[in-house]
Design goal:
The protein has six helices and no strands. The protein has 181 residues and is mainly alpha-helical. Helix 1 packs antiparallel against helix 2. The longest helix has 40 residues, at 2-41. The two termini are 23 Å apart. The relative contact order is 0.18.
Length: 181
């Protein structure tokens, strides 16, 4: 069980680092939206690049922060049922849900996004809008990265819940011991 705990801690640190990055991307996005709104409504000057940057930052924030959300056990589920379960039943539900839904979904997205990102990189895809952002392929590359992080974090979720089922007192249905990044 000590190996599983160390494995989880390493993955949790990785997810924590990307969660920290996602938090700063949120701050950056707020700044970009503020500047865009001021430019548009005070100076009557809009920018397609600024608007594209807003949704690129939002996508990056979501994709890079999803594993952190999973680490913190803050992902969406049907809490009306889940909340009434005992910790062992929650652990079984988490393991089964991760094995049956999260891992297959992440695997499918990783598989299907490979050609999507590769093609975008090969043609050096840029925005189709005049004045839009270059290097669209770089933002598209965040899709497989984000789902790879969720896939790896799902292994930590399974590990945590296996430890809980085996009576490890340091494991819990949620991420109970917060580590600093």
């Amino acid at each position: 069980m000590n190996f599983l705990r160390k494995f989880e801690q390493a993955i949790n640190r990785l997810s924590g680092a990307f969660g920290w990055l996602a938090g700063w991307l949120c701050v950056a996005m707020i700044g970009v939206v503020f500047i865009d709104v001021v430019a548009r409504y005070v100076f009557a000057s809009g920018s397609i690049a600024m608007q594209e940057l807003e949704w690129h930052l939002f996508a990056a924030m979501f994709l890079l922060g999803a594993a952190y959300t999973m680490r913190e056990n803050a992902n969406v589920r049907v809490d009306v049922f889940y909340g009434r379960m005992n910790p062992r039943t929650k652990a079984v539900v988490d393991i089964l849900g991760t094995l049956l839904f999260v891992i297959p979904m992440c695997t499918l997205i990783l598989y299907s996004s490979y050609d999507f990102v590769t093609y975008s990189y090969q043609i050096q895809e840029v925005s189709v809008d005049p004045g839009g952002l270059p290097y669209r392929f770089a933002f598209k590359a965040l899709l497989p990265l984000g789902y790879l992080l969720v896939l790896v974090q799902s292994l930590a979720v399974i590990s945590r819940n296996v430890r809980l089922l085996h009576g490890d007192a340091t494991a819990g249905p949620g991420y109970t011991h917060r580590e600093e990044v």
